Amino acid sequence: MAEEEAVTAERVIRVMPETLANKIAAGEVVQRPAAAVKELLENAIDAGADEIEVTILDAGRSLIHVTDNGCGMSSADAQHCFSRHATSKIRTVRDLEHIETLGFRGEALASIAAVSQVTMRTRRRADEAGFLVRIHGGEVKAAEPCASRPGTSIEVRNLFYNVPARRNFLKTPATEFRHVSDVFQSLALGNPRIAFLLRQADTEIHRLPRPRSSDFEESLQERMHALFGSKVTDNVVPVCQQTSYISVAGFLGKPRLGRKSRSEQFLFVNGRSVRSRALSHAVASAYEGLLKDRVYPFFVLYLSIDPGHVDVNVHPTKTEVKFDDERGVYGFLKTVARKALATSNLVPRMDDAGFRIAIPVKDRPPVRRGPADGGFARDAEAPSKLTIVPRTTQMQRLSDLLYSPISDSEAETPAGEGEEVEQPAVETLLWQLHNRYILAQLRTGLLIVDQRAAQERILYERALESMNNGLGLSQQLLFPRTIEFGPADLALVKELKPELVALGFSLEAFGGRTVVVRGVPADVRVGSEEEILEDLLHQYKENEAVLRITGRDNVAKSMARHASVRAGEALSSEEMRTLIDRLFLCKRPYVSPYGRPTMVQIPMEELDRRFARRPS
Ligand code: ADP
Ligand code: MG
Fold it and tell me: Can you tell me whether residue 263 is helix, strand or coil?
């Protein structure tokens, strides 16, 4: 009967018009300006260019302009390249198994043109004139001969102008810029023989000349120097190993280049920049004992492998790959990295038992820890960082303020909150357990306070308070510090400047990529300015990505986490007392800003029950 209905009913299923299909597909290929930059750069590289310029305005939202001196296109191809699945790079299914170009899906230009206003000029070297195509929201507005230099120039204006939902979803200019800069950096590292230029409006962000040396390792070193400076190139060790199945070349950062995130790990497989948790873990495990927990090595590594052994068509953005022998690649990379570190005398002891192919259980990539469990290693030996300020009158006033309502933007109320906990009496003896918990006697039972969660709560409220009331206490530095940032972090520092100033930082842009720090919040250890700012930025980015929080709330949470991250420290009873007092002065004392409980109460009845004793 369903069949009959289908025959008589009106046809409701239609094939979408191509412009609509492209607009939908665009969502997968270009989620943000950086993704468009990546596709355009990859096309320029595939076109054999050795000079590529990128200009962006407004972090790529209003303009992305990529110019290359590559092979160019004929007038016919220039019109055709915006059609879906138009590609010159593969023709047969067999080709798909041997991809040596960066592009192959033939959907980037179609997708970009569907959601922006594109003007392309292109010319093959042998042709007299070039050809111009203008296409808005997938509709061709112009296609005509034009004057043009050999190569291709594509201007993408007003990305997502016709997809407001997507446009609204974009992050702040600093964040979008950071993504563009990441994409640019990794493609520039992946192709050290090509000259690159990145401009934002009139400012040159990176000018990367063609290397003087024709040797790959040297050209890579020059490229790293141009991108990261001698801080990095002075602190890397070379890696080089070939087998019949796979080879690897590149550099590993010495432990002192360890970063708080994996954002400075550059891995290329057959020239394609990829992300791989497993391989990143393989390299990190070679540093065993050389890096602290949650510190990640810097590396730039190029793997070459027969394209038939690796599948690049796993995801539309082409940043994931699959090897037919994942474990083999893992073992190879780990062994080679160990050997490289050992040769440079960085690893004291090494078992170089050849390439181990099996992955021992303990070496398996770790399960990602969520933000709620703190995710930090509790390191009892870590140097003491938190300063517990005695109750001066200044602090008193601050804590008075904590009683007044603050605009609290925290989300859910975790379980356990709401039930009042009595504060331990002043004279109560306090115990510290494993530098982690504080135990106190309550009239009604036992109170256990998680030291770090408590510190985070206190610092978080204080940071919010400082920002909302401009009360951040600042200590001026005797010797102002000049700190150099990468372009992306610099943009973030500028964006967050009002919040940082309110917290007690005193900073000024100092030309180029440097910032002068003249003052820091009162409870920051002098001498750790650079570290704290870097930590703060890193935590901010992570909070933004994982918890999707921004602005003041994020700054306050980042500050709280930074200041308490080394909280596995021994506290004197005076310090424990102050901590508990100040915790109870908080507006929401029972939960850390990241949602963990700060304290647990065990009533006497519970203890009695456990000891099978009748309540007295
Ligand atoms: P893909 O790169 O996956 O083939 P794209 O949509 O990115 O798909 O590009 C479609 C086609 O347009 C490419 O296969 C190539 O032939 C041509 N093309 C795109 N950009 C350039 C460029 N900068 N120079 C020369 N040809 C280009
Ligand atoms: Mg492409």
Answer: helix
Q: Which residues are registered as beta bridge partners of 506? A: 519
Torsion of CA 84, 86, 89, 91, to 10 degrees: 100
Tokens of residue 194, six digits: 């090509």
Task: Find the 173 Cα to ligand 2 centroid distance in Å.
Answer: 25
CA-based nearest residue to 426, from 531, 544, 580: 580
Long-range contacts of 427-433 (CB under 8 A, 24+ apart): 429/573, 430/573, 430/576, 430/577, 430/580, 432/570, 432/571, 432/576
- Tokens 């303009």 correspond to 63
3-class SS of residue 62 = coil
Mind listing the pLDDT tens digit for each residue in 65-104? Answer: 999 999 999 999 999 999 877 677 666 666 656 666 776 6
Report DSSP state, residue 87. Answer: -
| Of the candidates 589, 572, 580, the residue with the CA atom closest to the CA atom of residue 451 | 580
292 phi/psi in degrees, rounded to 5: -70, 165
Token pair for 528: 């750790």
Which H/E stretch holds residue 482? Answer: strand 474-484
3-class secondary-structure state, position 138? coil
pTM, rounded to two decimals: 0.63
pLDDT at 70: 96
With b for 16 or more beta-carbon neighbours within 10 A and e for fewer, the 150-165 pattern comes to bbbbbbbbbbbbbbee
Which residues are near ligand 1 (CB < 6 Å)?
A: 39, 43-44, 47, 68, 70-73, 81, 86-89, 103-110, 152
Q: Which amino acid is at 56?
A: I
The SS3 call for residue 284 is: helix
- Which has the closest alpha carbon to 283: 345, 241, 331, 317? 331
pLDDT tens profile 21-55: 777 666 667 889 999 999 999 999 999 999 999 99
Q: What spacing in Å lies between the alpha carbon of 527 and ligand 2's midpoint?
A: 47
- What is the Å distance from ligand 1's center to 602 Cα? 66
Residue 509 main-chain phi, psi, to 5 deg: -70, 140
Closest C-alpha to 352, from 333, 365, 363, 336: 336
Look at residues 271, 343, 268 and name the one whose alpha carbon lies nearest to residue 300.
268
Residue 151 Cα: closest atom of ligand 1: 24
